[in-house]
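Box S1 | Example of a co-folding query
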Amino acid sequence: MVRAMNHKSRLLSEEALTKYRIELLVKGTVVIGPQILFTQDELAKIDQLQAEIPEEEVREGDAGDSHNVFVKRVRIDPPGRAPSNANGAAPGQIMELLERKDRSFALRKILGATSDYVIRRCQMHRMPPGSYVGIHLDAASDPDFEYSVIVQLARDFEGGEFVVYPSGYEHQVYRPPFGAVLVTTCRVQHEVKPVLTGERRSLVYFCSKRSGANRRIIESSTAGL
Ligand SMILES: O=C(O)CCC(=O)C(=O)O
Ligand SMILES: [Fe+2]
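Box S1 (continued) | Returned holo structure for 2-oxoglutaric acid
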């Protein structure tokens, strides 16, 4: 029994993982409920570590899209360079927590990979009232981004819905609760609606099968020739 467990996720049954996998394939987005991928203790640890990371205000996205959000960088993925953890001890500790074996195994199954995905970029968002993230495509930041994983870190806020716009389908509106994890493909446009009251906070990471330099600059310079 114990031996069999070694090859499985301790977080979820094979059946549950398959159910999430299918929903992600069919809809492009899936929400994994609270207390499944992250325990309360892990969320508290992330909260404690993030206090040490400096915050910047971001008003423009990588593709000129409009945002209004406070960002803490955990792992950066600059064009033309390989991803690296942001300075200081806390980013490395958050990455270590995200990459724990059971969680990586469960995510790999949900994302449908035979080998581990790498986390190319990771950041935390704080959105007081009036903040929003305009419509954008995550793959515009890095063409190798495949899935974004968004952990909900706040309980009390209104607005801030996550809206996806699959081409040829009705848009979908998500309001995941505290501790839930929303996984979405980086090839579908989406936005975060303005926060109305309270404060929305999230931890966002972008997964890819490729670990080399961000190919964004190379692609755009080729396009310009
Ligand atoms: O904070 C979030 O919920 C995700 C925002 C987003 O779409 C992004 O960072 O690409
Ligand atoms: Fe996004």
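The pocket of fe (ii) ion (ligand 2) is lined by residues 136, 138, 148, 190 (CB under 6 Å). The helical segments are 2-5, 14-27, 40-50, 89-98, 101-111, 216-224.
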